[in-house]
Amino acid sequence: MNNIIVLPLIIPIVTAILLVFLRHNIRLQRIVSLVTVAAVSIIAFILLLEVQTNGIMKIDFSGWLPPFGILFVADSFSMLLVLTANIITAICLIYAFSTIGGRHERMFFYPFVLFLIAGVNGSFLTGDIFNLFVCFEVMLLASYVLVALGGEKFQLRESLKYVLINVVASWMFLVALAYLYGTLKTLNMAHIAVRVAEAGQDPVLTTVAILFLIVFSLKAGLLLFFWLPGSYSVPPTAVQALFAALLTKVGIYALFRTFTLMFTLNASITHMLIGVMAGITIVLGCLGALSGRDVRTIAAYNVIIGVGFILIGLAIGTEQAFAGAIYYLIHDMVAKALLFLIVGTMVYLTGEIIVKNMNGLIRHYPLFGWIYFIVMCALAGIPPLSGFLGKVLIGQQAVEGGFYVLLAIGFGSSIIVLYSLLRIFLAAFFGETSISEEDKKPIPKGAMASFVVLALCIIALGLGAEGIAPYVEDAARTLADPAIYIEAILGAK
Amino acid sequence: MESLIVILVGILVAVATYLILSRTVIRVILGTAVLSHAVHLLILTVGGLKKGDVPLLSQSDGPYTDALPQALILTAIVISFAVTAFVLVLAYRMYGTNGTDDFSKLGGSSDE
Amino acid sequence: MKINDVILRTVVKAVVFIILTLGVYLFFAGHNAPGGGFIGGLVLGSAVVLLYLTYDIETVHKGMPFDFKKVAAFGVLLATGTAIGSIFFNVPFLTQAAREFHFPLLGETHLSTVMIFEAGVALTVIGTLVTIILSISEDE
Fold first, then answer.
1. Which residue of C has its CA nearest to A12?
2. How many domains, chain A?
3. What pTM, to 2 d.p., does this model score?
């Protein structure tokens, strides 16, 4: 029995519920939530190894065989993402322990983080597109609460906007599902792929595909990212980092699944559209990052640039490009989490959010400053850090496939990313400090530990890329050849 | 019958769009509720309106109507119920702290 | 000014029991006919909300001293617990088991683990429903 595949979804839910009963015992809440996420990471790692040896695994809920029942599927792509997501959540939790404050902790902060991660894991693992919608909603409901938690005036306003935009996006998801079910009469992803291949991708299906593209773009922040900078800058730092690392990435995952498995036949329209959207996203993200004066806005626009860059890999659509996109996706999750944690800590230390008003942080916090330097280099793609390999692979494939415009935009964005982050580094870290030795706030030890661990992850991902290569290659192979996935789900034809 | 229902879906979506584009928070929330009902009806319609018997083993012996759209709708209803309830509480809290339910008066930068 | 709600109070006293009975009926009907935990829970929850509307929160709370957030949490725990139970029997997740039992008075009864799952759903629905209404109505 492959029941282990549901554990990443079910363990966080059960512990989240248990934590509701432990509302006032904050110490226990911290321990339980951290242990949960760590346990899920271990399970994800075990599954990753098993998938490597046994091929794609699946579990049919209550024994209903596909395409009739719902199921969870573990392939290398989803397991890599589950593993990364849970490790990052664990680190963000460590950061949260020392910074989030007792008021949040008593207002069910940890249960909602666990619900969030349950939704994220479920979205990565499910093999049924309606189930994907449900897991999305679990994740989004938790994120709605996390944005609003604290109840500050501006938080409530931004969270209302965030909720309404996502309600409309979910509505479009349902519309797309309705048309999909109406035309194909199935919701199992592998079965959809088979039926699309049998019937050919006629205009109706292409329209449905574009509807899905719009929905997932809204969630991923691909072109339709207007909501992102506002809602990502209001919650507490730990939540911001979680959002930046996880939420948009789930949208990206959904885009990859949809357009590598299900709607592959009309690539001249859908994949070209993705390429165009990715290009425009990067350009607009760069403009935002250049013009931002507020550190959090600059960081939020960097998320958008990252999303665009990963989707260039999808637009190119070769196996190596997928591999590059997966490398970059994993790197981006780690690096964006660290960037948001650092930026949030800078705001906490200086009490300022405008870049120009900060100065000389590196004098008081040398390690903090150099960790920022590392993440900056990683995001710009400087070897041997984690961002390098993904950029090289995507770049190579762009040249081979003749995507020169996307190549130019993608690599041009690296320079802009470097410039926008370097601007923060020069203004906020270098120079004379205006905070005297007595006034300086210490960085909590837990927070510092989380920075160090994430920075080590970035270095390890860069130097040890060889170590994860077999998993990434396997994931890319499955994406490039959907027949492997379909055969694992529906059995050999 | 299907065309009639689809037209009804269109009307509901139009009503919802009108409500969502208004400035009052509560109208926008009502709009999202109508919107979700429209899509539930759409799912029911594209799944095929009644063609067979009730899909209950003990009460008929087929052919059955496709039960899946109803399962999907029930799930979607539960989710939209939860979201709507959350948004209502959120809007209420926001009215309490900001003293207005007018979107145009909510503006302001996030650095307040 | 005190609102004269004699009619409401008198009617509610009788009606609440009818609603509760209907809720329980719907809950048990759910296995092979329309009904089930969600609908049953909604009806049961609406009875509680009706009580809150008619009498004030303190009075009802004296009669039903539950924290409805915890009721909801317990419900989810019960439902997921049933689902997880299947893992220990080494059958696919969410698998159900059912058997015929013979009870005095009730006769042959078909019992399945789905019922526990549905009870969890019902408790969750009641808990969330009442929590939402209370969180809006509690403060001034």
1. C80
2. 1
3. 0.93
